[in-house]
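User: Predict the structure for this protein chain, please.
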Amino acid sequence: MDKFDQHIIQILSADARCSVSEIAKQVSLSRSAVTARIKRLEEERIITGYHAQISSRDTSAEICAYLALKFDTSSSNTHDCTTYAKSLSQIDGIRWCHGISGETDLMLYVQVPGMRRLKEIIDMIHQYPHLRQLVTHTVINEFFNHTQVEQK
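Assistant: Here is the predicted structure, written as structure tokens:
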């Protein structure tokens, strides 16, 4: 990634609806060059989606949770967290998946409209082979979140 790619990502992170023409003006490239770069960034999975940022004023029905997954490593069929992560990335509502140190293999962050969807996701994950334990930690309060882009 060069400085143009980084600038394009910065612009899209702040405003996913920014037009290609506006991005081209801001980064001093042609529209076709910006379009090609965005397409490449999507193909390389650097850009994985475009999202609407929803106001936190009325999120009372929204459920956020962390899911800690442990897999059985004692079997002869060793698991591959990369394979599980690829599969998990296809489940709507799972916002991120990290491989972490310690006894937990994967830590997921889930953001869904309600408990029904959270249960559906948990039920899907329980079908994964070699899953030994799934622990759910429901978010009760969010005191701050530095990952959200502030609106200007």
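The CA atoms of residues 13 and 149 lie 7 Å apart.
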